[in-house]
Amino acid sequence: RGEMAREPKNKWSLASMAEFCGYSESRFSALYRQYYKISPMADLIHIRIENAKLLLAYSDMKVLEIAEAVGFADPLYFTRRFTECYGIPPKDWRKTQRRTSLCGMEKRKH
């Protein structure tokens, strides 16, 4: 899991994760689910989305660039998965974060 978080852009597959850890795919998947309560591939998507949230909130990168930076080869797939998780597309999520940040800054100035 740590390696996925450090290198989310890698082309991870269940096979490559299992090989990295020295297990068969089925054994790796079973152990991963037992320990983390999520499948390895679902966790990878979660890690990538979380990394994308940081980039959306704190960078001026385009959504296409962010999708690529966190390991999504297809920006439309990234947008679909992000929207499934948060109920709004990444571009709109970014706007809400920036608006919240600006409101917070204004409140602190007074």
Please characterize this protein's 3D structure:
With 110 residues, this protein is mostly helical. The chain has seven helices and no strands. Helix 2 crosses helix 3. It starts with a helix and ends with a helix. The C terminus is likely disordered.
Short note summarizing the structure:
The protein is mainly α. It is 75% helix and 0% strand.
Largest sheet, if any?
A: none
Give helix and strand order, one letter per element, not per position.
Answer: HHHHHHH
Strand content: under 5%
The termini sit apart by 43 Å
Q: What's the pLDDT, averaged over the residues?
A: 89
Helices, by number, come to 7
What overall geometry do the principal axes of the alpha carbons give? elongated
Query: Tally of extended strands?
Result: 0
Q: Helical percent range?
A: over 70%
Question: What's the Cα radius of gyration?
Answer: 17 Å
The low-pLDDT segments are 106-110
Derived structural class: mainly alpha
